[in-house]
Amino acid sequence: MRVAFHIQRYNPEQDVQPHREDYRLDVGRGTTVLDGLIRIKNELDGTLTFRYACRSAICGSCSMEINGTEKLACKTQIRQELERHGEIQVAPLDNLKPIKDLVVEMVPFWEQIRAITPWVEPLPHEQVDPIAMRDAYSAFNNVDGCIMCGACVAACTVYDVDKRFIGPAALAKAYRFVADPRESTTPERLKRLQEVGGIWDCTRCNYCVEVCPKDVKPMEAIVRLRRASIEQGLTHTMGASHIISFMEIIKSEGRLNEGLMPLKVIRKGSIRDFFRILPLGIRMFLKGKVPFPFKLKPAIRGIKQIRAIFKSRGK
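RESULT FIELD:
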């Protein structure tokens, strides 16, 4: 089977902008994109530059964009890509500065990991609950499976627009230490994650979950960090206020009151926050997009059952 590879090339010593180069290669069944790239380098163009090491989806080195999605080249089958997309387009990871061809600068990614203090600050041995330690691995929810490939950061829509965001991989790893029964600085860790670029900046687009080759589910780890923050009483952020207000309205009325929601969210904010959203609220109200914020009708039928659910959860 003869396959055309469309590869984004970039040599900073020669090129002003990245450009595409095409290569044609005869491949057999079971050939991966990495196999194809190695053959292109060995047989067609020795200047092609890319990273790889284990070739077994363990090291994460060969993470790149294949047909518009972040993938590991070593586990991506050419035949499957052709069946889905009809071609093979290869480019470096997005959101990370290209160094040459398919190689990107990973220093910002490593800095994100270092920022969350990626090691346990242990309690004294006698204070560690042995039963909790027995169940610790399952409590990590697979965040230990991260191979640091950077695919989630490349796919992250928040990091794309704000490089202050600490990123999905770092936050997933932060949850691993927050959930560790041996950790002595959980409250301090959670406080640091309330800042700009922390857990409340995630928009829950789910792209990090979609592209993760190891099923780490970074977004779910971020949601768990948010829950842990609220349980620790860290409710001063707008994100925490949004969650608490949502629950209060559902518990009170049995359904979301879109008119009351923003008023409750900014109640702990400043007067400036109120006037910042006021023009938008007025425009939405005039177009019939916002219901009257204060109840004129009783709560919905079945409100007792809804409140019983909250009570059973201790809310």
